[in-house]
Specification:
3-stranded antiparallel beta sheet; 32% helix
Length: 137
C-alpha cells in the first residue's frame, strides 16, 4: 500500500493550467496570467522545476502580486509583495530564491535559505499579531 503519486494529485490542475495558457495566447494579459498560474501550480504541486518562470513584471501585469515562501529550517511561511522587491521587472522569479534568507531562526553567521511555494493574488499569510502574555486572548 502506498500513497497517491504527485502526478495523480496535481496532474489535472497542471494539465488544465497548460491548456488555459495555450488557448489564451491570443490575448496578451490572459496569456501572461495563465503562464503565471501554470508556474505557480507547478511549484505548489511538484515543488519545481522553477525554470522557466515568469518575470516579476509579467506576474504583476497578470494580477499575481504576492510570492509565498517558506523557511527550510523552521517551516515558517510568509507572503512577500512582488512590487516591493528591488530588482528589475524583467528578472525571472526563480532568480529571487537565492537572495531570500530567513533571519529569525538563523545565527550570526548562517541564515537558512527559503523555498518558493507559489504566487498568489492577495496576501495569504497574515502578519503575526503580538499579544502580551498577561492579556487574555
Amino acid at each position: 500500500m502506498g500513497t497517491k503519486k504527485r502526478e495523480v494529485i496535481w496532474g489535472g490542475r497542471i494539465m488544465g493550467a497548460k491548456m488555459r495558457a495555450e488557448t489564451a495566447r491570443q490575448d496578451a494579459k490572459k496569456a501572461v496570467r495563465a503562464e503565471a498560474e501554470a508556474w505557480s501550480i507547478r511549484m505548489e504541486g511538484y515543488g519545481g522545476p522553477a525554470q522557466p518562470s515568469p518575470t516579476i513584471g509579467q506576474c504583476l501585469n497578470g494580477g499575481y502580486g504576492w510570492l509565498k515562501i517558506e523557511c527550510c529550517r523552521c517551516k515558517t511561511r510568509a507572503s512577500l509583495p512582488l512590487n516591493a522587491i528591488r530588482r528589475p521587472r524583467d528578472t525571472p522569479i526563480w532568480k529571487l530564491e537565492s537572495s531570500f534568507r530567513y533571519r529569525s531562526c538563523g545565527t550570526r553567521r548562517y541564515k537558512p535559505p527559503v523555498r518558493m511555494i507559489k504566487l498568489t493574488e492577495q496576501r495569504e499569510i497574515t502578519p503575526y499579531r503580538w499579544v502580551h502574555p498577561d492579556e487574555e486572548r
